């Protein structure tokens, strides 16, 4: 698997692109090979001065590989923030809670409720059928983007607001 990933990366870089799209580049790899591929991508990004879009379901890996994180749910962007920013959208918070961390322990957020259809998404907020904070107004329309400063935007009527921060 690791050799195939390396060949795929070499093929993608053969024409010296300015942008590399890495879509799940470490899926189905064991931990040691995964680390090698991630380190290779980081080295190549620096050496070749590449811009990279790193797509993954593993938000902890995305945070190590990226400067900014864009969280999508059912094909819609629900949050965009610099790495290290406190997540405001409940789905982003659930993603971060799903991966154990020694430095930032968090109680896992268990999502309940029906998983909506991607071809027939629910009205309003696409996450509302699984969101513990959803209310009737979440069904009315897709929330407008809100800002948290520093290029951090999110789409949520009932965001998670860190202690000591005003909405």
Number of domains: 2
Beta percentage is 15-25%
Task: Enumerate the spans where pLDDT stays under 50 for 5 or more consecutive residues.
Answer: none
Secondary-structure class: alpha+beta
Instruction: Kindly state the percentage of residues in helix.
Output: 25-40%
Q: How many E strands? A: 6
Number of helices: 5
Order of helices and strands: HEHEHEEHHEE
Mean pLDDT: 90
Question: What is the global morphology?
Answer: elongated
What summary fits the major beta sheet?
4 strands, antiparallel
- Measured between the Cα atoms of the first and last residue, the distance is 46 Å
How are the strands of the biggest sheet laid out side by side?
Answer: 3-4-6-5
Radius of gyration: 18 Å
